[in-house]
Each structure stands twice: as structure tokens, then as C-alpha cells.
Amino acid sequence: MIGYINGKKVEFNADDTVLNVAKKTGHFIPTLCEMADIRHVPGACRVCLVDIKRKNDSHHQIVTSCTTPMEEGMSVLTRTSAVRAKQRLQVEMLLADHNQDCATCIRHGNCELQDVAQFVGLQKTRYHYPHFYLERTQDSSSTAIERDMSKCIRCFRCVTVCREIQGADVLVIKEKGLATEISVRDQLPLGDSDCVSCGQCILVCPVGALAEKDDTEKVIDYLYDPEVVTVFQFAPALRVALGEEFHMPPGANVEGQIITGLKNLGADVVLDTNFTADLVIMEEGTELLSRLRENGCLPMFTSCCPGWVNYAEKNYPELRPHISTTRSPQQCFGVIAKTYLAEKMNVDQKRMRVISIMPCTAKKEEAQRPEFIQDGIPDVDVVLTTREFARLLKREGTKLPELEPSAFDNIYMGEYTGAAAIFGTTGGVMEAALRTVHKKITGLELGPIEMEAVRGLEHVREATIDMGEGNPTVRVAVAHSLKGARQVVEAVQNGEADYHFVEVMACPGGCMGGGGQPRSKHAYQSSWQARQAALYNIDREAPVRQSHNNPLIIKLYDDFLGKPYSHKSHDLLHTSYRD
Ligand code: HC0
Ligand code: SF4
């Protein structure tokens, strides 16, 4: 079909809206609520106004382009003075009851409302009604997420992502008209609700209404305290996404720049969560073997994703014995740093502060669990998300792309394998575990080492692994997003699936798509493929690709832990789950 946008001929399909056709043909129309990759078109913000004239009709009409079907012969104008004036008025109305504390807003400089105000040429606002927005909810009850409804523009993207993508369905729309507010189901504070702290709602919020709890001040305090020894760990998925905050392409590996940036900030020791990802494989792999050999509780589910653990505890308490008791790599890192590393470095653990940088908001909550605090000393003291870390670097004047990369220099915990690197993507923990489990069962390294069956982005993927003659075939599944998690759990509970081992990551894509990662304006998943490809590339290029072959993990067991699943390992590296 043929129509016209700004006088140019455009081709389109029968089910296209004016907005779709404009996007496909490179004509920009501002929007604040629409988000194509979560199929969210509520027609709520009313900023995407255009002038249309139908074939054989001399009347011009101003309509919202997201809700108007494109028609044969239709002529669309996007920038007439009447369109611009109406868009300006609409943005002015959105700002009238919006808390305009922009200079101090966490989203300053990355706010879609600011962008649209600039695009429509709004230079001052005539209306400002604080009595409306000041009555709206400010909710700090969650350990991970802040809700400030005085900044909400009611685009409803968060409701859609929580309901349709995650299936958690925690956020709801309350009231109507001017009183409309995004609320938490049953009017609960977020911290008392079924929210699992995954942070996916933050990734789609166009303004500063949803954000992680900001802990950067605590980190600066530790960095500038001469009594404190700071030990930083950063997560597998951080290095392939942080660059986006500094205008680098998604998937750029900035591991070396992160190390330099942290050293420049005054970090005493910079290490990698990947080291303890290898350690987790040793413990979790041995745990799986013991469950397989001793008729233990199967299937075993992975435990490293705190969003998933929260979800299972809240929704499927009967699953608790199925969840691996192995702590996550973040928590194993904290405890090994404050015991083994403190001993090796001759540092009093009371002076040590472990600071994590994670692509995840739920890791903040995980670090504060009482199970992970011994005698008032937490294993992990502070968790920053990727976005907070970017803010910290920017505040201190760091230009990440200009930094010379450095290498890890710690001789006790400073090496990782390719298996650990792929933890950052859905399927990676499973692939890493199978490399080690295969070696333990058969005595041979798994080949081919790259397990295509567990790679990819389908919500649930299954595989069977031949463990050699005389050994049972191992059946596994990988799920990502909470919807995927529910699908797998229900299949297991209904007797439709019979797995030995299941990996679950709460965030779509796994940690690379974590709720603490850099967000893209107007898009939800635009960086995933590049981030995932970069993680697989790190594995491909790694000199050692199996966790059991990490020489510093072998030394850790020789010098300190004994063997995997030993008493000492149990005390330090395993946990239990809540009723
Ligand atoms: Fe992940 Fe992790 S892989 S949860 O996604 O297992 O956050 O990147 O750090 O702990 O290693 C996040 C990422 C981690 C942990 C690791 C696991
Ligand atoms: Fe929903 Fe996750 Fe946001 Fe909680 S953090 S409200 S579960 S999307």
C-alpha cells in the first residue's frame, strides 16, 4: 500500500499504524509511552500528534499517530506549526503535574521527557501544580528500588513489563483521570509486596519515577577512609555493557578500563566475580553429582539469581529443597575475600569492605539478607548497579573510553575461565556447570565445548547430555524471565517434564539484560545480542575454559577449603532458603 509522509511516498502493510510507518521510513515522531519491543501502545501520552489528510478528503485532522491506522493514499505531516503547537501544549500539560526537580533527578540527562520537551521547543512552562504531584506516593520500602510517583507521567510501561514480560504482576493502575497513579497490588509498600527486585520496570521508565537505591555515597566514604581496605568485585555482564553509558557500542568489552577506573578512584584491590563463578561451579557441580548419585532432591534449580530466589520463595515455597544450597558468586566472593584473602593479605577482616558492581538491582537485597551477615559483618558491604557505577565514574571526572586498560594483579583471586565469563548470559551457568560435571562423571573434557542446545534466547530451552557408557543421560532446562521460570516450574510440578538440573535467571536475557544495566531510550532489548555475543567471545578467547582448570581455584581448595562440598565449604559457601 502507498501513502505519503511529509510529501514523500511511503510503502506500508495493511496493519501498520501511522507511527509504525513513520518509524520504518525514518520520519521521527516523539513518543513517551509507546514501546514497540514490549508491544506497549496505550495511547496515553498523546505526544505523537500528526496532521493527516485522507484520500479524496480535503479536511486535515490532528490525531495520535500510534492509534491511527495508515490508509491507502493518506497524507501525513509531522511538523506543521499546528502539530508543533499542540505537541508543545501536551508536553506542557505533562510537565504541569510533574515534579520538575530535574537538576537533582537520578535520570537527569537520560530522561525521555526532557528530550521530548527539547524536541517540541518548549522553553518555559506556564503551569505548575505541585499540590497534585506532592500528594503522590514516594515509596522507599524496598531494599533495591525507589518509587517516586511525583515524577511518573503514567505511560504504564512498568505495568506492562512487570505483568506481560515478567508475569510478576505487582504494579497496577489506581484511580482515573488526574488522580491516576501507578500503585502496588493491594496498595502495599513495594518492600512488602510480591516484587522480586528484578528492576525490569526501571529499564522501561522514561523518567525518574523508578530507580535503584543509590549507594554511591557509601562507596565514596569507603574509598576516602584511610582505615578501610576496599575490595571491589564486578560481575560477568558488567564489562560488556558499561561502555554504553559512555557512548561506546553495546558489547564493547571494557574489563581493562574498569580495573583502571577503579584503581584511579583509589580502590585497594580490584577483582572479578568471575573468579567465584568458577568456585560456584565446583560447589554446585559437586552438589548436583551428589544429588544424582544419592537419590537426592531433583531437579536441582540454580541459586545464583536473587530475583529468581525471591520469586521461588514467595510463590513456590515447596521448591526450597530443590534449589541448590550453593551461594551466588557475589556472596561466595564476599565470604572468600573476608576469610581467605584477608588471611593471605594479612588484613583484619573488620577493616575490609567488599563492594560489588552488578548488572542487577536484586543483588542489593541479596547482600542484605541476614544469612549473609556474620556477627554484624556483612560478606558484601555495598552493591552498586552498572548505572550507579557509571554515575560514580562520571562524578569523579572519569572518561572511560580514554582509560588505558589494566589487568587483574591479585595472585590469590585474580584469574577466571571462559566458563565463568558466560555466566552473564542466559544459559551460561548451565553450560559452565555441564563442562565440569561431564569431566567429573566421565573423566573427559566435554566436547564440543560450546553447547548450542542451551544457547539462544527462547524463554525455555532443553537439552540432554550424554555422560558416556554406563552413566545416565543428564536432562537439563534453561529458563529466563519470570514467565519462563513459571513455565518450567509448572511443567515440573505437573509431571510434564523430568529434568535433573534447571538454570533460572529472572531477567530476560540473564544478567546481561539485568535491571541494573544501562537503559536504552524507547527500546527494551536493543543491546542484548551484542552483549551476549561479547560474552561468548570472551569464553572463546579464554586460555582456560573450564572452571575446574582455574589454577587459582585449585589453589584455593588446596590451601584453604579442602575439597568441594567439604565441611568448610558448607560453612562458608552454602545457605538455606526462607519459609
Ligand atoms: Fe550475574 Fe552472577 S552471573 S547473577 O547474572 O551466578 O548480577 O553478570 O554477577 O552472583 O558470577 C548478576 C552477572 C553475577 C552472581 C556471577 C551468578
Ligand atoms: Fe515488577 Fe520486577 Fe519492577 Fe518488582 S522490580 S515491580 S517484580 S518489574
From TrEMBL:
UniProt entry tagged with the keyword Metal-binding: yes
EC number of this enzyme: 1.12.7.2
UniProt cross-references to SUPFAM superfamilies, sorted A to Z: 2Fe-2S ferredoxin-like (SSF54292), 4Fe-4S ferredoxins (SSF54862), Fe-only hydrogenase (SSF53920)
Record keywords: 4Fe-4S, Iron, Iron-sulfur, Metal-binding, Oxidoreductase, Repeat
Presence of keyword Electron transport: no
2Fe-2S ferredoxin-type domain location: 1-82
Domain 4Fe-4S ferredoxin-type: 143-176, 187-215
One Pfam family in the UniProt entry: Fer2_4
PROSITE patterns named in the record: 2FE2S_FER_2 (PS51085), 4FE4S_FER_1 (PS00198), 4FE4S_FER_2 (PS51379), 4FE4S_HC3 (PS51839)
The 4Fe-4S His(Cys)3-ligated-type domain, residue ranges: 82-121
InterPro entries per UniProt: 2Fe-2S_ferredoxin-like_sf, 2Fe-2S_ferredoxin-type, 4Fe4S_Fe-S-bd, 4Fe4S_Fe_S_CS, Cytosolic_Fe-S_CAF, Fe_hydrogenase, Fe_hydrogenase_lsu_C, Fe_hydrogenase_ssu
Protein name (record): Ferredoxin hydrogenase gamma subunit
